[in-house]
Specification:
Layout lengths: L11 H50 L4 H20 L10 H16 L7 H19 L13 H22 L4 E3 L2 E4 H19 L4 H31 L9 H26 L1
Antiparallel strand pairs: 1-2
Helix pairs in contact: 1-2, 1-4, 1-5, 1-8, 2-3, 2-4, 3-4, 4-8, 5-6, 5-7, 5-8, 6-7, 7-8
């Protein structure tokens, strides 16, 4: 079912505004958690985002083996967080301990289904979910060192600005349209990246030329990734059969809000090392 066929249920306003609002909430959770309870608060907020993404992804996509996919997603979320929290010197490579077994379990979950008609789609969905929740765990490593204090907050604000601006602009002017039936436009994409760059510069650009350039690059890269993944999430929301129209809409909004954060978390960690 295409977007046009359910347009009466999923209007552009319903596509953009709730997703933008939830993006603001999703960005605020880890920031508030870290401010109020330190690393423990950030861990709790990240786990909450992971579990929200698992439940929403399974409900929104409606692929076969949903229960097994949900269980694997929850276990991968907890395992990824523990892999980056328990070691004295955690490394992103520690996630391989989670990703390897999780991939195997996803495959086995689909192999042992009785009805394997949509097995390829379900397998792809499960693997993407595991990768997304594992990527969210990378937020636990961003900004831990004294030299990069506050970087996690800056990264989240950049992502939030890019996602929210993209949705709001596309609500008003989704032109030139990026794909038929998808309410996303090139103007919104460009302004989303611009907003991310501006926030990155405003947060960390107070210094010499090198610091200012690094801050602008940080915001531009994260803003670009966030904007592109937000558009991809809109594709998912449009192409996913919403069933009765409104039944899966909240789940699709959560996916649109959280997926860009998941994509940007390891990128922010890489930029922390590079810049």
């Amino acid at each position: 079912m295409t977007y046009a066929e359910v347009e009466s249920e999923l209007t552009p306003r319903m596509h953009h505004l709730p997703a933008a609002g939830l993006a603001a909430v999703a960005v605020a959770l880890p920031i508030a958690g870290a401010e109020l309870a330190g690393n423990a608060g950030r861990l709790g907020a990240v786990l909450l985002l992971q579990l929200a993404l698992v439940g929403s992804w399974v409900l929104a996509t409606g692929v076969g083996g949903a229960l097994g996919t949900a269980v694997v997603g929850v276990l991968a979320s907890v395992g990824a967080d523990l892999a980056l929290e328990l070691p004295d010197r955690p490394r992103l490579g520690g996630l391989l301990v989670v990703l390897g077994p999780a991939f195997l379990v996803v495959v086995l979950n689909q192999m042992f289904r009785r009805n394997r008609q949509d097995m390829v789609a379900a397998l792809s969905s499960g693997v993407l979910l595991v990768c997304a929740v594992s990527s969210l765990a990378a937020l636990l490593l961003v900004g831990r060192s004294e030299s990069s204090a506050g970087l996690a907050t800056s990264a989240l604000l950049v992502v939030g600005a890019a996602v929210i601006v993209g949705h709001l602009v596309d609500l008003v002017l989704p032109r030139p349209q990026l794909a038929p039936g998808v309410p996303r436009g090139l103007v919104g994409l460009v302004l989303a990246v611009t907003a991310g760059t501006a926030v990155g510069f405003a947060r960390r650009g107070h210094g010499d030329l090198v610091d200012s350039l690094s801050a602008a690059i940080f915001g531009a890269v994260l803003g670009t990734v966030a904007a592109l993944v937000a558009v991809a999430a809109s594709y998912v929301a449009v192409e996913t059969d919403p069933g009765d129209g409104r039944g899966r809409a909240p789940a699709l909004w959560v996916v649109q809000a959280v997926l860009p954060i998941a994509a940007c978390a390891p990128v922010a960690l890489a930029l922390q090392t590079a810049l």
